[in-house]
Write a structure and sequence with these properties.
The chain is an alpha+beta fold. It has 17 helices and 13 strands. The chain has a six-stranded mixed sheet with strand order 5-6-1-7-8-13. The structure holds magnesium ion. Magnesium ion binds next to β1.
């Protein structure tokens, strides 16, 4: 009996909300779909299809800006109940693998298959899991006509990077042998937990890539404090966090009771801004992101209402929280009478210091787009220039995208220059 080595999958549905809309409404297929407020209303984008992302549209962006970037976009109202229903079906399929499953959001889960897949060495165990990952993707596709990306690695951090990197419709394995090389040329903010502040501090030390961090001889405590040890380990692709089967429900919220009931927009906006600042910095401190944003209002007669909104890409910054809060107040016309209390809360919290949403300027390219994998890297092991396994890998690349046939063309990530290491490892397996 061989020793159990760690085998972790990160499964993430591709453009989940928008893909469900495109599946349910065939007329939207191949078109840029924006799930969120219509541009004639004040409101924001909740999710965008790959076709819309190619125009620079991303979640939390005001819909009026989105329509300017992508005038032909189809705007659809979110159907949260529908998305949750689909999510349940997906998680059932995921559970059926027998893995220990940690659902981290509506469309994302970690699977620990260490007890299910064995091997003679850590990398051998990882390789032995590829068949299962393919089957899992196929099962989801056959049952739901939706595409999932799966990243395979020996820990959560690398598995998540692998699924991001392989998107859309990806299946990517990062071996233990090549993990250091895989990380080397990536920007430091790709490390789990490195936000803009830490990235800026590292940059001041001349550290911009993970490789520079890997070989940095100095003390990192001034930059990352007590976290510096973990940061170094992450840079080397080491992460011992367990896959936790029961996600704990965490809520962070902030409320304000006014000395006098008020419907003065300036006062309310200022209160929301303060709350968003407070929550945003709390999330950043804890290296968490929020999937669900909730506002709470209480009127003079103590009638209390809450309204919430879930987003596909979790948010963290004060600015995003503030925007979504304003959107909720406006959309549900909550300020219909003077308020006694106004509150903002976030829940469905997920770990992670990185998001495309950190990029604040509408229309500009996301930093991610500068390094993302070309489609030829999908269904693949990242070998960092080692071509010895190429023959066996070719057989893995047997399945092709049969839903959203045009997704590749529009995928901004796929169009960009690819992983920095691609120059020395052009393992293009596309047909
Ligand atoms: Mg997703």
């Amino acid at each position: 009996m061989s020793q159990p080595y760690r085998v972790i999958f990160h499964l993430d549905m591709d453009a989940f909300y928008a893909s469900i809309e495109q599946r349910d409404f065939p007329e939207h297929r191949g078109r840029p779909v924006i799930v969120g407020a219509s541009p004639v209303h004040r409101g924001v984008v909740c999710a965008a299809s790959y076709e819309a992302r190619a125009f620079g549209v991303h979640s939390a962006m005001p819909s009026v800006i989105a329509v300017r970037l992508c005038p032909n976009a189809v705007f659809v109202q979110p159907r949260m109940a529908r998305y949750r229903e689909e999510s349940k079906k997906i998680m059932k399929i995921v559970e059926a693998t027998g893995a220990k499953v940690e659902q981290v959001s509506i469309d994302e889960a970690y699977l620990d298959l260490s007890q299910i897949v064995t091997g003679q060495s850590p990398d051998n165990a990882l390789l032995n899991s590829v068949q299962l990952a393919r089957r899992l993707k196929e099962t989801i596709r056959n049952a739901l006509q939706l595409a999932a990306s799966i990243g395979i690695a020996g820990n959560k951090m690398l598995a998540k990077l692998a699924s991001d990197y392989g998107k859309p419709d990806g299946l990517l394995l990062i071996t233990e042998r090549d993990k250091i090389l895989f990380l080397k040329d990536l920007p430091v903010d790709r490390i789990h937990g490195v936000g803009r502040v830490t990235a800026r501090r590292l940059k001041a030390l001349g550290i911009e890539t993970i490789g520079q961090l890997q070989s940095y001889p100095g003390d990192l405590r001034p930059v990352a404090g007590s976290w510096s040890h973990t940061l170094r380990r992450y840079a080397l692709g080491e992460d011992t966090r367990e896959v936790q089967s029961s996600g704990s429900v965490k809520v962070v919220s902030s409320e304000r009771t006014f000395s006098q009931d008020t419907e003065d927009r300036n006062i309310l906006r200022q209160a929301l801004r303060d709350q968003a600042d407070e929550l945003g910095s709390s999330l950043q401190r804890k290296k968490l992101r929020a999937r669900t944003i909730q506002v709470k209002v209480r009127y003079g007669n103590f009638e209390t209402l809450t309204r919430q909104l879930s987003v596909e890409n979790p948010v963290q910054t004060s600015r995003e929280l503030y925007r979504f809060a304003c959107h909720l107040l406006a959309r549900h016309r909550l300020v219909k009478a003077p308020l006694r209390l106004l509150g903002l809360g976030v829940f469905n919290l997920v770990e992670g210091g990185w998001s495309q949403l950190e990029f604040q300027f509408p229309g500009a390219a996301s930093p991610l787009e500068n390094w993302h994998a070309p489609k030829g890297m999908k269904g693949n092991i990242w070998t960092g220039g080692n071509r010895e396994n190429e023959e066996s890998q070719k057989t893995w690349h047997s399945w092709t995208l049969n839903f959203h046939p045009r997704a590749h063309e529009f995928n901004p990530k796929g169009r960009a220059g690819g992983h920095p290491a691609r120059q020395h490892s052009p393992l293009n397996l596309s047909p």
